[in-house]
Amino acid sequence: MKVRPRIPVLVLASLALLPVARAADGQLTLPDFKELEGKASESVNITLDSSLIALATRFLDAGKPNDAAVRQAIGGVRGIYVRNFTFDTNFAYPKEEVDQVRKQLSLPDWQPLVHVHSQKDHNDVDIYVCIEQGKASGLAIIASEPRQFTIVNIVGSIDLQKLHALEGSFGIPKVSLEDKK
Amino acid sequence: MTIDLEKQLRDALRPAAPPEGFAERIAARIEAVRLRRRRPSPLFLWAPAALAASLVLGLAALHQWELRREQQQGLQARRELIEALRVTGEKLDLAYRGVSDASRPANPDDAGT
User: How many C-beta neighbours within 10 Å does residue B86 have?
Assistant: First the structure.
């Protein structure tokens, strides 16, 4: 009889642990950004879970070099989540929602990889990697530009070198690994 | 007169052998009626076949629709995957450019000194 009151407590405790558990597997809890979608002049909202990635992979032609490179780059990826909003005016997006995502990246599993702040262009780019048992299990990119705000969350392991191999294909820009002269 | 009538009656009612094949004809007639009764109407004969054909056609159409839907979903997922990689590459490029700008000396003339 005394055990009963513990059950809701246990349920609540496990619910409270949910965001942590999700963060631990490299997946962020992204806000729905419905308000932003209305304000933005352009928005990209991509949610690809493991089943959709598997489906997309079936439609990549292994015989074509570009498709084969994509296959290789996403070999260990279990989820890709992209929120990208473009605005007509500068800094039209609320900082709170960005901070909500940034807060999740303060968990011990997430390690900051790169932080770029450009005073000149007013750009901020943060790249975090989720390390689980010594292995990268997720990647997060938060980029704030005057007229654009982007969150990318890749769950699983993505080979940036292989992503680099996709440069110039499918409109993927050439990543400048060296100084442009 | 009475005797004559009696004789006529006896003649008329005298048992006569049936014509040859009478019994067979009767039996054949009975069998034909029985078979006619047992044979279902053409509607009942075609209904199951039509039903089966519609079922097969329906299943084939459903399969085709499922294949087309899966193909559309797959192509959409492929487009989204490429778009996601494009956005990722674009933001990585932004970060790399920021890093390279930061590591570049403020005054290029000072670089060699």
Answer: 19
